[in-house]
Model the fold of this input.
Amino acid sequence: MRLTTDMVPNTLTMAKETAVPLAIVVKPFGELPSGEPIPTTTFGKNAIVRCHFCRAYINPFVVFKNNGTEWECNFCISMNKTESHYYSPADSNGLRQDFEQRPELHSGTVDFIATNEYMNRPPMPPTFIFCFDVSQPAIESGYLALATQTLKGIIEENALPGGERTRVCFLAYDKQLYFFNLRSTMKQP
Done:
């Protein structure tokens, strides 16, 4: 996620005085800020390691205890037994010996590769939601024209992944929210 500014005004007066448009770009399947691709992890034929109570995925903030035989979920604070296929000895600080080989334990963003048995329905089509400020200041500043032209170019170049399955949605707002749904009919190059 990237914000249009590093400093967000904390009062309405300051926001009006600075007149900086506030937006956030959310790119869940994008690259990391360093430009590196998002790491992937797989558990082979075994299920993805998740908390048995709240179903949270294994992540860098869980704490391994009892020499790595158990781990504490950072969401619900429940103790989970470490499955034998996932076991690795841990030191007194809860750091596993295989820490460097396990991206799910040291990266904030990880793609989990799941087996077909993991899915209970076919994958959803890629869906993109674009939000536009259509207020008078956005129109006068040229922001809206630039944003729509850029998006138009991306769509015309078929730069959105997913081909014919891709879905696109536009949200426009000023004082109210307007919703437009466009089912993409993009053709494969």
User: Anything to note?
Assistant: Confidence is low (pLDDT under 50) at residues 183-189. The beta strands are 2-3, 24-25, 40-42, 63-65, 70-72, 79-81, 111-113, 127-133, 167-173, 177-183.
